Amino acid sequence: MIFVTRKATFSAAHRLYNPTFSDERNQAVFDKCNNPHGHGHNYTLEVTVKGLPDPLTGYVIDLKLLKDIIDEAVVDKVDHKHLNYDVDFLRGIIPTVENLCVVFWQQLEHRLPSGELHMIRLYESESNVADYLGAPVSIPRYELTTLPHTERLEA
Ligand code: NI
Predict the structure, then answer these.
(1) 149-to-85, 130, 135, 155 alpha-carbon distances in Å
(2) Is pLDDT of 147 > 60?
(3) 36 CA to middle of ligand 1, Å?
(4) Are 47 and 6 in contact (CB under 8 A)?
(5) Checking DSSP bridges between strand 2-14 and strand 39-51, what pairing results, if any?
(6) Catalytic option among 80, 109, 116, 151
(7) Kindly report the CA angle at 94 between 88 and 95, in degrees rounded to 5?
(8) Is 101 a catalytic residue?
(9) Quick one: pLDDT at residue 145?
(10) How many CA atoms lie within 13 A of 37 on its CB side?
(11) What is the band of 25 on the pLDDT scale with cuts at 50, 70, 90?
């Protein structure tokens, strides 16, 4: 088995909070990451595909093709966006680096023309990184009751 990896980068904003928590509990659990108007990260995404090289091409998967799939399914949808509000497939999900890995996996796993998705690795910063290998996990989706910015502007 051979493992090939394609790397991509994107920048996005997010806020970590659970709408079922009180303000005090959100602050205690998420601290600075709970700041109401969000904050940004420069993310690095690594997508690893496993398989055997095609005897005719030598490829597990054409990495140019994998780049195009990652761009179309993930990067073009999240780059320069607010992950809590702007991305359909993230709606209601707490956008931790862990949860993002799982949702990105779901976006990618059925789009590969060859090989098999092996791992999603997502760096939220140089220090914080999550690896997901596809084990079944259920990510709750919460109702969003307010949009950002509006309350303060209308007050
Ligand atoms: Ni953050």
Answers:
(1) 11, 30, 37, 10
(2) no
(3) 12
(4) yes
(5) antiparallel
(6) 80
(7) 75
(8) no
(9) 60
(10) 5
(11) very high
Which residue out of 33, 46, 98, 118 is catalytically annotated? 33
Mean pLDDT of all residues in 117-140: 97
Catalytic residue (choose from 41, 82, 101, 124): 124
Residues in the chain: 155
80 is catalytic: yes
Residue 151 annotated to the active site: no
Convert the pLDDT of each residue in 54-95 to its tens digit: 999 999 999 999 999 999 999 999 999 999 999 999 999 999
In angstroms, the Cα distances linking 34 to 52, 56, 118, 153 are: 44, 52, 32, 19
Domain residue spans of the chain: 2-154
Assign domain 2-154 one CATH number from 3.10.450.350, 3.30.479.10, 3.40.50.10490, 3.30.70.260: 3.30.479.10
Q: Are 1 and 51 a contacting pair, CB within 8 Å?
A: yes
Kindly tell me if the per-residue pLDDT of 12 is higher than 50.
yes
Q: What is the pLDDT of residue 150?
A: 46
Between the CA of 104 and the centroid of ligand 1 the distance, in Å, is 17
